[in-house]
Structure formats: C-alpha cells, structure tokens
Design brief:
Structural class: mainly beta
Length: about 230
C-alpha cells in the first residue's frame, strides 16, 4: 500500500482546541479525497468522515473518528481512537500530546494494518511543530515517524491561509518502504474559511514520493460541520 498516516484525527487537522470546545461534540466532514500525508486512501474518491469528541475542562480529551477508505485486501473502512492532553503554557505557547490507535475493516486481513501511534505538538501563536511516532507502522513491524511544520496566516476575517510541510521516515525499510531511502516529503497549501456555520477547506497537496505513482499533485475540497451536544 497514507499511505501517510499523517492522517491525524479530523479534530486535530482542523485545529481542534479542547479548551474552546463543548464537553461533548461531533463533527461530520465530507471531502472530495481522503489524503493521508499527500497520499490518497480512497483512490481519489470522496469520503465521509464522522467523529465524536469529549473534552474536560482541565484539557484531557478522547474521541473516535472514522472514514471510508479503499486500499489493499478490500479494506473499506477506517476507525481511529485517540486520547490526549492539551494545555496552554502561557505567553502564546501551547502543547498537545496523546496517543491514537488506527483500525481497519472490510476483509479478514484488514486488521493486519492496525497500529498505535504517539504524538506531541507544540505551538506558538500561529506556528505549530508536530511529531508522530509509530513502532509498528501499518502493522508492518517497522518504526516510522513524521515531523511537520504548520503556519497559519489570517488573510481576512474568517479566511486563513495554511502552509505545511512534513517529512515521513521509515526506520526499517525492510519492513515498510516509502521511497528508496525510506523517506519522503509532503507539502500542503490550503485556504480555510467559515461560511454557513461550517468549515470549508480548499487544498493543494504534493510530495516527492517516487513509489507506485503515489503522492501525485492533488486538489481537494472539504466541508465540516460540528455539533455541540453539551
């Protein structure tokens, strides 16, 4: 077969800030293409992605997120579970750290792709540095980590330009090969806006991956609506 499991849960991709959320909420996202670190997990087809998130006043959170997918061995569904802690460090600094577990369904072999992952994200104002590490990436038996830098630039009221770049590295290319040396780079340019009570994202993704025609330049559009329960 992401893939990049840059795929982080939707609430984190959309700039989820536990301190600003209701105690229990759900988000439904419709996207023209499920991209995971620049690699389509739906063969360039649309995806419907619901989530359910609980957040405490102290910053602890947990949730689940799902999506349709389409890749090896007739795998057609992904369901992720995550828990973590978000804290305001003061002077415009913040930190988010947690663990996630990715699970896959569709055939008797799909669960072989399941794996856990740990992450930490440190932000200063509109700049964020994120790190993800998996010891058994996509169930292949090898380690893998991703480092990402994200910069948000507010263009107008309700319209933000988001620039991001990340590097994916396999620590054991005999277990999981992304490129000839086990690494590849992904960059993303996105416009984020809020209209009609929903969050809209128009994005362009590209990579330097040279493996099985994956990571080609891709435009995508998504819309997400959040419902606060209490």
């Amino acid at each position: 077969m992401q893939i990049t499991k840059f795929l982080v849960p939707a609430c984190l991709i959309l700039g989820f800030n536990p301190s600003a959320q209701a105690n229990l909420s759900s988000t439904v996202t419709l996207t023209s293409n499920y991209l995971f670190n620049g690699i389509t997990l739906t063969q360039d087809d649309p995806a419907l992605q619901p989530s359910l998130d609980w957040v405490s006043d102290s910053g602890w959170y947990l949730g689940t997120w799902g999506s349709n997918v389409s890749f090896a061995e007739n795998t057609d569904r992904e369901v992720d579970f995550y828990t973590g802690y978000y804290t305001d460090l003061g002077n415009n600094w913040a930190m988010d750290l947690g663990i996630a577990h990715y699970t896959y369904y569709g055939s008797s072999d799909s669960s072989a792709f399941d794996y856990p992952e740990a992450y930490i994200k440190v932000s200063y104002r509109d700049t964020k540095l994120s790190y993800w590490y998996a010891k058994d990436y996509f169930g292949a038996g090898g380690g893998h980590y991703i480092v990402m830098l994200t910069q948000n630039v507010q263009l107008t009221q309700g319209l933000t330009l988001q620039l991001s770049a990340d590097r994916s590295t396999s620590t054991d290319t005999s277990k999981f090969l992304r490129d000839n040396d086990g690494t590849y780079h992904h960059w993303r340019l996105a416009l984020l806006g809020e209209w009609f009570g929903a969050k809209w994202t128009a994005a362009f993704d590209d990579t330097d991956l040279e493996l099985d025609d994956l990571g080609e330049p891709t435009f995508s559009l998504s819309v997400a609506k959040t419902f606060n329960w209490f």
